[in-house]
Amino acid sequence: MIELNDWTDDGGSPGNPSRSEAARRAWKTRRQDPGEGVPARERNKGYQKKYYSEHRRELSKKRKLRYRENAEYRDKIRERALGRYKKKREELEQERLKTGWTAKTRGYNRPRVMQIHGKDVLLHSPGEFADRMGVSVQTLGMWEERAILPAPTVKDERGRRWYERGYMGRVASIVREFKRNGGRSLAALKDVIAKGLSEGGPR
Questions:
Q1: What is d(CA 148, CA 90) in angstroms, rounded to the nearest whole number?
Q2: Which end of the chain has the lower number of beta carbons within 10 A, N or C?
Q3: pTM of whole model > 0.70?
Q4: Which CATH fold topology does 107-198 show?
């Protein structure tokens, strides 16, 4: 006869691990649990990523086959893709209204809002700055390397240069005026820019 105290509270015997304990160990092995205290969601994410990496081709074939043969699944995928497209279009429209970029200023050329001394400032890309001056981005970079132009307003974490609107407008006006007057010397251009910025320059 088996006495009640011969069994543990969770269904296992003293000499054998309980079913819940065995299941927990199997779960940890399968998920490659990095240790206690790590959220289950993060553990599952690591396992799923590893599983997908190992079975990518097989899973891809199954999805394609299901997409071809299952009309309900196909409609669901199309609806989801359309939803993502609409959401992206709405985000782009909001960004356009906020920053004023046009169809010409795409990708990295879009203005961006960054924090400078705790304040949000609208900054513009080297491409837009170069367009305003009527020069190439390479020429703009060369002028900055030779100190013909002051340093950019800010550099992001990737080292990309960004320019404040007022500064960009003043320098572009000075450079265009210099070119209209037939100026060609870089030394003269440097002096004109320095003088124009010190006086406030045309906008």
A1: 41
A2: N
A3: no
A4: Multidrug-efflux Transporter Regulator; Chain: A; Domain 2 (1.10.1660)
